[in-house]
Write a structure and sequence with these properties.
By secondary structure, this protein is of the alpha+beta class. Helix content is about 45%, strand content about 25%. The chain has two helices and eight strands. The strands form two sheets. A four-stranded antiparallel beta sheet has the order 1-3-6-5, with no helix packed on it. A four-stranded mixed beta sheet has the order 2-8-7-4, with no helix packed on it. It is rod-shaped, with a radius of gyration of 41 Å. The relative contact order is 0.11.
């Protein structure tokens, strides 16, 4: 029986040595202690992709996409985490959302993301500008029409005064 225990302990020792060698070679990811996202507020267009820089300790920590919390999954989605960057993609909805890394014992800062439909915004601004220009042109036309009417009234008054003068001269001549 002594022989069997000796063989078992030898086998167990060899397994532990192999396990420690494999852990040294392939590394063992540690749990995250601290994380921050190097943005506080960003604006995106719909259907746009952006990357957010991540800083975390230890450097070999395992970061899971599922640990990021998004306030509205209909506005953006997380595509991947690669090389200390979080890649996000805005969907085809406008909105304001927040992103935060959160586990039981670690939380990152909150990032506010606003997704805007830039095409719709540009069209709305162009429409507003066209309306303002049309209104300005209409006001200019109205002023021109008022000036023309005023000028016509002045001409009419001048013509009436000239007519009165002619009539007075006629009366004066008739009296003589």
């Amino acid at each position: 029986m002594n022989q069997k225990i000796k063989k078992g302990l030898t086998y167990l020792g060899k397994c532990l040595i192999c396990l420690s060698i494999l852990t040294t070679i392939f590394g063992c990811s540690s749990s995250i202690e601290k994380i921050s996202i190097n943005e506080s507020q960003i604006t995106m267009d719909i259907n746009e992709e952006k990357s957010l820089n991540l800083e975390f300790t230890p450097d070999d920590s395992t970061i899971k996409i599922d640990d990021f919390q998004i306030s509205d999954n209909n506005v953006i989605e997380i595509k991947k985490i690669d090389n200390q960057k979080l890649y996000i993609h805005s969907l085809d909805h406008e909105g304001k959302i927040t992103i935060q890394y959160k586990t039981d014992d670690v939380e990152s800062n909150i990032v506010n993301v606003q997704v805007i439909d830039q095409k719709a915004l540009a069209l709305a601004m162009a429409k507003k500008q066209a309306e303002e220009e049309a209104q300005k042109k209409a006001e200019e036309e109205k002023l021109k029409a008022e000036e023309a009417q005023k000028k016509a009234e002045e001409e009419k008054i001048k013509a009436q005064e000239a007519q009165k003068k002619i009539e007075e001269e006629k009366r004066s001549e008739e009296r003589r």
